[in-house]
Each structure stands twice: as structure tokens, then as C-alpha cells.
């Protein structure tokens, strides 16, 4: 057998009607696309034609944009969307190969619900489900779940660790071949194949077993995107795909190396953890055309929304009292996303930006790397990051849908394929198979230490 060449993994991060904050106002955008199933189905068919590994649905359990009143909120657009798991269930029956990844929070769910729903989607899609594990980052979400404010950062990750123990334990309720449905002997399943969890811990008391058979992939693919010390430690222990935001090649390379090292410290094969930074591509047949496309979107940015987005990315730190043409002030710590706050702060200082320049630089990529240019320019950047081991793949964030996804699939994918960097056919019918991530045997999750590991902050 020949040596298999390392190739890119691609996620389609399809925030409808586009990743750019003003996308909903773009002439070609479906402003009401968030609740239009036919629109999603069409997008998925395009992504599947482009051989994307997976489609990813981000989510919050509530409206997460900061706003003072209805007037401000009405300028934001784009917060209506389907519940992600409901959407994926429907998409599962309209697609055949693309992975289906959804966000669900460990802070505002019970593990039994999550284990059951993702196991169901894995069965419905014949092995294409993935869970983006988040601890959530806003008080707005906490306020929909009986609290005034979110639990602090460390306690959210503390609960998340135990949550994972329970969820994976529930997926391991049954041997893979436990269910024989043997009419002859009268045994629905083999009694030796049942493993009752009986978990009693600090946050959860869950007996099990799950009333769904072991998922086709063993466990749905586990994704995580926390980049704080605790977030990285959690990802090193549990994640098989790590989403991240990076501005520069050096930043991305350091993160990639750090994640692999931390996974190895847990006793894992670092190759079984794929790091996928976000990429916001604005694609034109010429550079001038790409610049024009970006300018059209930037002209549609409402200043209220621009400043609100910056507030959000800083972890809900109010900077409305600061002059827009002055620098970003020193910031208090946030209980929201500490890593994104740091990234934005570093960018402002590194590039010497005023607050207005800073928010205008974030309206597209929100902290993810932006590339504006020809298909070759986009492929060059992807190749550079990939070969420098700064990325195992990318989460592609089209600025406006469906146009931005069409551009990527029709213009960039063929260029990546020509360079031998990306598949021309799916290798497998399961997401694990395409990502090159092993199917875990029953009980695999309990074989590693639970953490926190040596790199986490003290809890
Ligand atoms: C590509 C990407 C997608 C994310 N999607 C979501 C999401 O859908 N919902 C959510 O609450 N957080 C999402 N996050 C935020 C992370 O889960 C995490 O909370 C954040 O990076 C802060 O982590 P930290 O507190 O460890 O720094 C996403 C982050 C990235 C980089």
C-alpha cells in the first residue's frame, strides 16, 4: 500500500444569509434564509458537490447580540434560525455524504438529552453526525435558563468535563452488536451487551442506559472551539476536531503545535485531533473584483451593529463611552470568551487601530483570517498554512450565501484539487471515514484521565 498523502479537511460554516455581519442587506442575500429549509437544502447540495467534509451550524440558546432597545436589535438582522438539531435531522435525509455538525451547550442542557439527540442524528444520517461542544459565553443565554448571569468560566468547563463523561458513557450503553432482534429465541438484545452507566457525580446523577443503540460512528465526531487554557485542555482531552480563530500564520502554527502537544500529554495520538482555523474568503476572478465585493459589504455596515459586534467579541465589555477615533482602552477580564477578547486586543495593538478601524476590520471575519483575492490567492493561503502545519483544514465562512459558497466550490475547490490538496471523491460514507478519525471502541472515552490536565488553569 502506498503512503497516503496528507490532505485538507474542509468545513462549511454556513451562517445564513452569510458570515459578514451586513450580509443580510446584500442585494443577492436571502435575508429570511435562516428559516428557509429549501435554501439550506440547496446550500448543502452545493457543499456536497464541493466534497466538503462537513456542514457546521453555530448556535446560541437565545439572541446573543448585545442591544439596548428594539431599535438597535432591528438593525442587526440574522438572528432567526432553526434549532440546529431539528435542521440537521431534516438535512440528513436530503444528503448522502457530507458530515452534519451542530453546536449544543453543556451549560444549558442535560447530558441525557444531548446523548440521545446526537445518537439519533448519527443513526438518521448513517454515521455523519458531529457535535460542537460549547460551554456558551453570554449572560443573555443564562437569562433563558433561570439565571441572571452565566456561571463563571472555570465552573462552566468543570461541568462540561463531567457532562462528557456522562454523554460518552450513555453512548456506550450497548455493545455494537447488542441488538439481535431474535424473534426465534425471544431475545430483543443479548443481555451481556447491556452496560448500565449508573453515574453519580457532582453535577449529574444519570442511571442510563440510553434508549438508542450505539451510534454508527461509535461516538458522533466531537468538535470543540475553546481557546482559553481550560478550553484547550478540554479540547486536548475530548475533541477530535478543534475549531479556532487565528489572524496570523505564526499564531495559527503555535496553536496547532500546542494542541497536538496537549493531546499527546493525555496519551492521545495527535493525528487524531484535527485543527481547523476559520477562513473568511472574498473571491473574485480578479483581485479588483474581490476588493469591490468586499467594499459593497463594508458599505452596508450599520455603525451601531459594528460597535455592537466589537462589544460582543470583547466578551460583552461596554466601550460605548470611548471615542471611536481613539485606541481601544485596557480591558477588564471577561467571563465570556477570554481567547477572542485577547485576539481582538492583540490585533488592535499590533495594527495600531482606532476603535472604528478595529470594528470595521472585524465585520467580515469576526477575528477569523480574511483573504480577499483570486481563487489562486485563496488556495495559496490555504496551502501555506496547511504545509506549515498551522492547519489540518479550514472552516470556510462565505461572506454572503449562496454566492460565496458557489464561488468557493466552483473556483477554489478545483484549484485545491489541481494542487493535490483536496479530495475529488469522498473516501467514505461516514464523517469519521472522511476526516480520517478512528471509530472509538466501546469504553474508549474512559481509558484516558479525565482532566483537567497539566496545561489547564487551576479550578
Ligand atoms: C469556529 C468557531 C465556532 C464557534 N461556534 C460557537 C457556537 O456555535 N456557539 C457558542 O456558544 N460558541 C461558539 N464558539 C465559541 C467557543 O465555543 C468558545 O466558547 C469560545 O471560543 C471561548 O472559549 P474560551 O472561553 O475557552 O476562550 C465558536 C468558536 C469558534 C472558533
CATH architecture of the largest domain: Alpha-Beta Barrel
Question: What structural class do helix, strand and pairing data support?
Answer: alpha/beta
Give the strand line-up of the largest sheet. 1-2-3-4-7-8-9-11
Q: And the CATH topology of the largest domain?
A: TIM Barrel
Per CATH, the superfamily of the largest domain is: Luciferase-like domain
Main pleated sheet: 8 strands, parallel, barrel
Could you name the CATH class of the largest domain? Answer: Alpha Beta
Range of strand content = 5-15%
How far is the first residue's CA from the last residue's CA? 48 Å
* Average pLDDT number: 95
Question: How would you describe this structure in keywords?
Answer:
TIM Barrel; two-stranded antiparallel sheet; 459 residues; 15 helices; single chain; 8-stranded parallel β-barrel; FMN; alpha/beta; binds flavin mononucleotide
What is this entry, summarized?
Helix content is 38%, strand content 12%. It is an alpha/beta fold and 459 residues long. The longest helix is centred in the middle third of the chain and has 19 residues, at 153-171.
Overview of this protein structure:
- The protein has 459 residues and is α/β, with parallel strands linked by helices.
- The chain folds into 2 domains: 9-287 and 368-447, TIM Barrel, CATH 3.20.20; 302-362, no CATH class.
- It is built from 15 helices and 11 strands.
- The strands form 2 sheets. The protein has an 8-stranded parallel β-barrel with strand order 1-2-3-4-7-8-9-11, surrounded by 8 helices.
- Helix 3 (84-92) runs parallel beside helix 4 and helix 7 (229-238) crosses helix 8 (249-265).
- The chain is globular, with a radius of gyration of 22 Å.
- The mean pLDDT is 95.
- Flavin mononucleotide binds at residues 58-60, 103, 132, 134-137, 153, 225-228, 230-231, 243-245, 278, 337-340, 395.
- It comes from Streptomyces huasconensis.
- Its EC number is 1.-.-.-.
Amino acid at each position: 500500500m502506498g503512503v497516503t498523502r496528507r490532505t485538507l479537511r474542509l468545513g462549511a460554516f454556513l451562517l445564513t444569509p452569510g458570515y459578514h455581519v451586513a450580509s443580510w442587506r446584500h442585494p443577492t442575500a436571502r435575508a429570511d434564509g435562516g428559516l428557509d429549509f429549501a435554501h439550506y437544502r440547496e446550500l448543502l447540495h452545493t457543499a456536497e458537490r464541493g466534497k466538503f467534509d462537513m456542514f457546521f451550524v453555530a448556535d446560541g440558546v437565545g439572541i446573543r447580540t448585545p442591544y439596548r432597545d428594539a431599535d438597535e436589535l432591528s438593525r442587526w438582522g440574522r438572528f432567526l434560525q432553526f434549532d440546529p438539531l431539528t435542521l440537521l435531522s431534516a438535512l440528513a435525509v436530503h444528503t448522502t455524504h457530507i458530515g452534519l455538525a451542530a453546536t449544543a451547550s453543556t451549560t444549558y442542557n442535560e447530558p441525557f438529552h444531548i446523548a440521545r439527540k446526537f445518537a439519533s442524528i448519527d443513526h438518521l444520517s448513517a454515521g455523519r453526525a458531529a457535535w460542537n461542544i460549547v460551554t456558551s459565553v453570554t449572560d443573555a443565554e443564562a437569562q433563558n435558563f433561570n439565571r441572571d448571569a452565566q456561571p463563571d468560566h472555570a465552573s462552566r468547563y468543570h461541568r462540561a468535563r463531567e457532562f462528557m463523561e456522562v454523554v460518552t458513557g450513555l453512548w456506550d450503553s450497548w455493545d455494537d452488536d447488542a441488538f439481535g432482534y431474535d424473534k426465534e429465541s425471544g431475545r430483543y438484545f443479548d443481555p451481556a451487551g447491556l452496560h448500565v452507566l449508573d453515574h453519580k457525580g457532582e453535577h449529574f446523577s444519570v442511571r442510563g442506559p440510553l434508549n438508542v443503540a450505539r451510534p454508527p460512528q461509535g461516538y458522533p465526531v466531537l468538535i470543540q472551539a475553546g481557546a482559553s487554557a481550560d478550553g484547550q485542555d478540554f479540547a486536548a482531552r475530548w475533541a477530535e476536531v478543534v475549531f479556532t480563530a487565528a489572524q496570523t500564520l505564526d499564531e495559527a502554527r503555535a496553536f496547532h503545535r500546542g494542541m497536538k502537544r496537549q493531546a499527546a500529554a493525555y496519551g492521545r495520538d495527535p493525528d487524531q485531533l484535527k485543527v481547523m482555523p476559520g477562513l473568511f474568503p472574498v473571491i473574485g476572478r480578479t483581485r479588483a473584483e474581490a476588493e469591490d465585493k468586499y467594499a459593497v459589504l463594508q458599505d452596508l455596515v450599520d455603525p451601531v451593529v459594528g460597535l455592537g459586534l466589537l462589544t460582543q467579541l470583547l466578551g460583552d465589555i461596554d466601550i460605548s463611552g470611548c471615542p471611536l477615533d481613539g485606541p481601544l482602552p485596557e480591558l477588564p477580564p471577561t467571563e465570556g470568551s477570554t481567547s477572542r477578547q485577547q485576539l481582538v486586543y492583540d490585533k488592535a495593538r499590533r495594527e495600531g487601530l482606532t476603535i472604528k478601524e478595529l470594528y470595521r476590520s472585524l465585520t467580515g471575519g469576526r477575528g477569523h483570517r480574511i483573504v480577499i483575492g483570486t481563487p489562486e490567492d485563496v488556495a495559496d493561503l490555504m496551502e501555506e498554512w496547511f504545509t506549515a502545519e498551522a492547519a489540518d483544514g479550514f472552516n470556510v465562512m462565505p461572506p454572503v450565501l449562496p454566492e460565496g459558497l458557489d464561488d468557493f466550490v466552483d473556483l477554489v475547490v478545483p484549484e485545491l484539487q489541481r494542487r493535490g490538496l483536496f479530495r475529488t471523491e469522498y473516501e467514505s460514507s461516514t464523517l469519521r471515514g472522511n476526516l480520517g478519525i478512528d471509530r472509538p471502541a466501546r469504553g474508549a472515552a474512559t481509558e484516558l484521565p479525565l482532566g483537567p490536565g497539566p496545561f489547564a488553569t487551576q479550578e
